[in-house]
Design goal:
alpha+beta; 2 domains; five-stranded mixed β-sheet
Length: about 120
């Protein structure tokens, strides 16, 4: 099950949050259920998201660090802070749509450059 978690630590109240996403909605929702995250907290989904969560640029959950540890123990793949951008870039390339392919390739180049200079 290709589900991913990044190493972000964004403050939210007294918690530090990171991102959980997957290649498919089914995989993402299955992992959320497995680690005890209510599906109502999904962000960026056109039909499952509510209010401000609908406006996220990609489908994911923000999860706390304790849920991250559980997700990793359940097989989630750990990424750096560029993981979500890399995932979206690869989806653009896989679309086959020339403008999206070009955008995806350009993003991957920028990500690779940022990782090389140590911003990962």
């Amino acid at each position: 099950m290709p589900v991913y978690v990044d190493n972000a630590k964004h403050p939210f109240g007294r918690m530090l949050m990171c991102h959980l996403w997957a290649d498919t909605d089914a995989e993402l929702l299955a992992m959320a259920a497995r680690i005890g995250v209510n599906r109502k907290w999904i962000q960026g989904h056109p039909t499952l998201s509510f209010g401000r969560h609908r406006n996220a640029s990609w489908v994911h959950f923000d999860i706390c660090q304790s849920k991250r540890a559980i997700a990793v123990n359940c097989g989630a793949i750990e990424t750096d802070r560029y993981g979500p951008l890399e995932h979206e870039a690869k989806a653009d390339i896989a679309s086959g749509i020339p403008a999206r392919v070009a955008r995806g390739r350009k993003r991957l180049e920028r990500i690779a450059g940022a990782r090389m200079i140590g911003h990962g």
